[in-house]
Amino acid sequence: MRYAVGHSIPRKESWAKVSGRAKYTGDLPAHGTFFARLLTSPYAHARILRIDTSGAESLEGVKAVITGSDCPWLFGIMIRDRPAIALNEVRYAGEPVAMVVAVDEATAELGVRAILVEYEPLPFVIKPSEALAEGAVLLHPQLAAYRKVVDEVYPEAGTNIASRYRIRKGDIKSAFSNCDVVVSARFFLPPSDHFAMEVRCAEAAITADGTVLVTTSSQSPYSVRQQLSDVFNIPAGKIRVNVPFVGGGFGGKSSVVLEILAYIASKKLGGKPVRLIISREQDMETAPCRIGLEADIKLGALRDGTLLAAEITYLVDCGAYSDIAPNMAKAIAVDCTGPYNIPNVSCDSLCVYTNHTFATAYRSFAHESQAFCIERAVDMVARKCGMCPLELRLKNAIRSGDYTPTQVLCTPSIIGDLPQCIEKVKLLSNWNGGKPMAVGPNKVRAMGISCLWKTENPPTDAISGALVTFNSDGSLYLNTGVAEIGSGGKTHLAQILAETLKIDAGQVHVISQVDTALSPEHWKTVASFTEYMAGNAVYRAAQDILNQLRANGAEAFKCSADEIEVENGRVYRRGNPSSYIEFKDIVGGYKAQDGSSLGEPVLGRGGFMLKGLTALDKNTGRGRTGPAWTVGAQVVEIEADLKDFSYRILSASSVIDVGAVINPELMRSVVAGGMAMGMSMASREAFFYDEKGLLKTPNLRTYKLMHIGQEPDYRVGFVETPEDGSPYGVRPYSEHGIIGIPAALANALSAAFGKEITSLPLTPEMLWRLWVEGMR
Amino acid sequence: MLRYEGKTVIELDVNGEKRTVTVRPSDILLDVLRDQLGLTGAKPGCRNGDCGACTVIMDGLPAKSCLVLAVEAVGRSILTVEGLDAGSPIQGAFVAKSAFQCGYCTSGFLMVCHAMLSKYPKPEEHVLEEWLQSNICRCTSYQEIRDAVKSIIQQ
Ligand code: FES
Ligand code: FES
Question: Where in the sequence is the domain holding B142, given as residue range(s)?
Answer without folding.
Answer: 89-153
